[in-house]
Amino acid sequence: MRLDTEQKKALISAVAGSIIAHTDELTTLDQAIGDGDHGYNMKRGFEAVLTDAEMLSAKPLPDFLKAIGMKLVSTVGGASGPLYGTLFMALGKELPAEPSREEAVSAFGAAILAVKTRGKSDVGQKTMLDVLVPTHETMAQGAGAVAIKTTAARAASATVPMRATRGRASFLGERSIGHMDPGARSSSLMIAALCDLFGES
C-alpha cells in the first residue's frame, strides 16, 4: 500500500471533515458524562491538521502520521490530545513507508497498545479502546471495509450500557450508564471516514 501526496491530503480531509461535521454531537455526548469539550477540542485539533495539510502530506507515510500525532497533542485539549496523538505517532513509528495489509494490521495493534499504556486503560472501561480493539480484531480476520466500519459503529453503540471506570466519566459511577462514550464515537467516525475513502466492500 502506497499513499501519494494527494491520497494523504484526501485522508486528512476525510477524517478531519467527519470530526468537524460531528462537533455538536461529540460535544453533546461529552456534556452527558464528561467535561463537555470533546467535540470542540477535537474540532480545534483537526482544523489545525487541515491548515497544515499541504506540508504534512508531502512527508513519507511514517513521518506524516507522526506529525499529525504531534499536532493533535499540541492542539487538542484534555485527555484526547495525548491519546489520539499517541495513536497516530505510534502508527507512524511502526509503519514502513509502503506497508502491506499485514504490516498495517500489526502497526495498528502496536498503536492500540501504546494508547492502553498512555491512558492506563483497557477494553470494557468505556473509552476509545472499546472501538479500537474490536476494529483491530476485525481487520486481523481479513475483513473488508464494510465489516470494519460496521464493527466500529456497533462497538461505539456498545459503550452505552457500560459503566465508565476510567476518565472523567468514571466519577459519575452508575450515572455514566446509558450514554455513548464520546471518545468511542470519535474513533468510530475516523474509522468510518477511512473505510469510505480507501475501502472496498
What would a concise description of this structure say?
The protein is mostly helical and 201 residues long. The protein has one domain (5-198): DhaL domain (Serine Threonine Protein Phosphatase 5, Tetratricopeptide repeat, Alpha Horseshoe). It has ten helices and no strands.
Describe what you observe in this structure.
- With 201 residues, the protein is mostly helical.
- It has helices spanning 5-21, 23-33, 38-51, 53-57, 61-75, 80-94, 101-119, 129-140, 145-157, 182-198.
- It has a single domain, classed as DhaL domain (Serine Threonine Protein Phosphatase 5, Tetratricopeptide repeat, Alpha Horseshoe).
Features:
69% helix, 201 residues, mainly alpha, single chain, Serine Threonine Protein Phosphatase 5, Tetratricopeptide repeat, 10 helices, 0% strand
**What is the overall pLDDT average?**
93
- Alpha plus pi helix count: 10
What is the domain tally?
1
The CATH topology corresponds to Serine Threonine Protein Phosphatase 5, Tetratricopeptide repeat
Name of the level-1 CATH class: Mainly Alpha
Task: Explain the layout of strands and helices.
Layout: H1 5-21, H2 23-33, H3 38-51, H4 53-57, H5 61-75, H6 80-94, H7 101-119, H8 129-140, H9 145-157, H10 182-198
